[in-house]
Amino acid sequence: MSDSLEKPSAIIFGGLNTFSRALAALLVPPEGDSLVSHLRIVDKFSVSPPTTYLGPEFPKVLARPEVEYRQANLTVPTAVASAFDPPTGRAPYTYVFDLTGEVNHDRGEVIAIKMTFTVSRNIALEAAKRSVKAYVRLQQPVYETSDKGPLDEKEDVKPVKTLDIWWHETLRMLASIENLNLVVLRVGFVYGPYVEFGLYALVITVASVYGYMKKPMKTIWGPGKEPVHTVHIDDVAGALWACAQWMRPLGRQQADAIAGEKIPFHNDKGKVKELAGTCSPDVQPVAPIFNLVVLRNPFMTRRQVDDSETTLAKGGSMITQFFGTTFEFYSSLETAMAKLEDLEEEINEHHVGTWTEMLQLSNPPITHTPLNAYMDKYSLSRHRLGYSNRKIKRVIGYQLKRPDFCQETIQEVVDKWKAEGSWPVLPKA
Known about the structure:
Elements: E1 9-13, H1 20-27, E2 38-43, H2 58-62, E3 67-71, H3 77-83, E4 95-98, H4 109-130, E5 134-139, H5 162-175, E6 182-187, E7 189-191, H6 198-213, E8 217-219, E9 230-232, H7 233-247, H8 252-259, E10 260-262, H9 269-273, E11 286-292, H10 312-322, E12 327-329, H11 332-337, H12 340-361, H13 377-380, H14 390-396, H15 407-420
Parallel strand pairs: 1-2, 1-4, 2-3, 4-5, 5-6, 6-11, 7-9, 8-12
Antiparallel strand pairs: 10-11
Helix pairs in contact: 1-7, 4-5, 6-12
């Protein structure tokens, strides 16, 4: 079989607690033909016994003969190098998917640097040395955008929080590595079946609590016109694969010419100077970057779809309506008097206790679930993320598989949590 017809091989680094389970299921489905000849997944977690949530489908993927899971400390360069060695008799890996990076905002700057910047640099340097055909980096929703409307990849979107800044600095570092066939996929806030992490899994869970209490769900961030663009987990996996296929025949130089964007500096010059491998603050490295979001109005039916963006008010109303309640805003007086720290304590006192009650009253009772109703300062803070997705459609030709963020998709999510035994089954009121 010619090289052009052979199935590629791939490594997924990191993301077992975020995106790699969905990507692995796309590349090697539990049943049916695989897209790759061999898939190696490398992360810090154990899968047997599991030390992070795996969901019901991922163990079936791991059982496929094409799939290998390797637990490794990716902060150690030798461990990373070893992960690139293909099985005996197989060709070097074709694609690398870098899904690594710290996602907890309360872990501190040292951890953010070590688990995001350092880990990704270790993988990228080895990938460049091994001449992998495509290195696809997934960029979490770590930016704040303006209210000007959906922004394309040329716009200077800014990281605000400490963790976000180091995700952005990691991108600059990757873009500056010579001979790295880098493609960057920037995603919105992710939702979908078995997605237990991130903003929307939490919002859906908390909305169910307010529906159970028969009280409105409130936020201080009125009037709610800011964009909070979403994307389905199936499309994250599909777009990662599409990015790798797009890069493979091109190489970095041609890919930069077609889709390269400058990546500005948004960090402390003193901190960057002290860290090995950083890109000079005076340089704006270039890399192919693609946005991936849903841009449809959740109140439109599939026959009435328009291109208006999902905002806090629209998305919040759609989710709370699903659970039989409303989405409202605190008054200007309440907002002026409120402190986020005080709200955090007061809100969670209701959320956590009521969610526990719902789990106990479930038929059957639920003793363990990956979901929780605790809202930390990050989840309670204002979020503003509005991307345009035109470029990935135009350049790569990727079309969204799940273009609607609507009540039907929430129903699918909840039904699968219930079937797994992670979501309370309560008597009808």
